[in-house]
Amino acid sequence: MRVIITHELDARYSYYLDILRERGLSVIQHRVVDTVKDHVAINRVVDMILESKSDYTLFMSVTSVKILVDALRSRDIEPGIINGSRVVAVGPVTAEELLKNGIRVDLIPEKYSSYGLLDMFKNTDMDSCYGKSILIPRSKEASSILADGLRSSGMLVHEEYIYRLVPIPDGWSSIVDSFVSNDVHTVIFTSSMIANIFIDTLSHKMSNTSVSVIDALKSVTCIAIGPLTYKTLLAYDINAYTADEHTVEGALRLLLSLLAHKYR
To answer: Could you tell me which of 191, 114, 190 has the C-alpha nearest to residue 157?
Structure first.
């Protein structure tokens, strides 16, 4: 049986992969999307950073960090200039990317999601937030929940969509074969956007088979990385477990916990 994860894993996850193999499960790491940069929006963000126009800069992904770091360095500017604002990271992996590029991280929410960020700002001294500006460079497919919530708390929100996500058309054969042969144990969805793209793309890829993607996903274990991804799956009538820690590592820990419970 196979575990499909909509993310490419690096060496830090080898511990989890080894345990899954011991349980007789193989892992398919499938990158669902490619990133297309919006250079006009990127340059706007760089100009805002240079002009110190924001009180806060919020990073929702490693991708956003890498894009801006590359853009700054292409102008011979060290990324540490972002420290002119208070820097917020959605979670530890994004924070790690910031820190390794010399960017201080001032705030990380307890829950690594849009909801966790809203709770964090809600529980922060409002005198330090109300009327303050926050710059959020992110993907075009991002949910409006975060920006709307921050605006309702009195912050001046400036979102810039510095990239968009497009489906990768190739490399789906092993996924299709796994579902057609009823050889899928678990699917781990690593974002709401990716869940939508995965289901839509796979539905097209499997249109000439007798297998319904939605029905197939209902019959396997689905894990959502966080609450937004869970809600996206629920909209397809697909129930899912949600990791307590909204990271890839948190999702893998949840899977191991489910397996341990099963084999007790």
So the answer is: 114
